[in-house]
Amino acid sequence: MADTRRVALVGIDGSGKTSVARLLRGRAAGPESPAVLHAVRPHDNAEGPLTDLARRLQAVSEVADRLDSPELKIGLFYLQLCTYPIIEGEIRDRRHPAVILVDRHPIVDSMVYLPLYGRLAAGRPARPGPPADLAERVAAVDPAALPAALDWAERLGQGRDVWAVGRDLLALYADPLDAQLKRFRELLGTGLPDEVVLLDVRVDQALSRLGARGRELELHETAPYLTAVRNRFEQVLGWLAETQGVRVRRIDNGERTPEEAADEIAKLIAE
User: Fold this and answer.
1) pTM more than 0.85
2) Across the chain, which distance is largest between two alpha carbons, in Å?
3) pLDDT at residue 195 above 60?
4) Which DSSP category does 15 fall into?
């Protein structure tokens, strides 16, 4: 049986990743079709385990945005990404798909976002711990969310302090790319994708799309931060292509409709 080919769909927020992934997921039919998964929001997946946990982790992450806490945000980002190897493994073992297409990627996105959040945290006064009213704030959204997140962190061997998890990860932000790659492989329990498809858009186009979503913006969804994310994707993907042999392909998604972008990606997957 041929090995499963892993393709990561990446890009700044507002680049169209999730819209395109949903279209491709809706087109999938039959045992030979690609499995289309979401690395950070697995409750968006059409199949797979851990959907209840994923919804609760997302609820805590949204509170972290409102609290403007890089430590909590990165701690939750890590907890969310750690669901992916379990989900990918189950889908691979059950369906044996020729291709798994993942919206975001645990290692690639960690190498992009963590240094930027690290610099954000480093520029602020040190915080001794999470806000005293964190449990109350999360309980107002979902009473089961924070206990589920803490149980998951403990299961991963990280204790029950999500803020400390984020603080320790942010301390890695200045490490060179090779050291970050080694550490994230260990922490996330997964490897690099075989290929990466970058959906590229201008920052103003991304912000326009984000504003049309009708929901609160995340901590990094500002023009300066998205510009930094876009530049960091260029740096990380260039390094992965040169040193790790990851095939990187780019789609300019500024003027394409989601349907047109999905058609283009479907052609790439079929090659």
Assistant:
1) yes
2) 54
3) yes
4) S
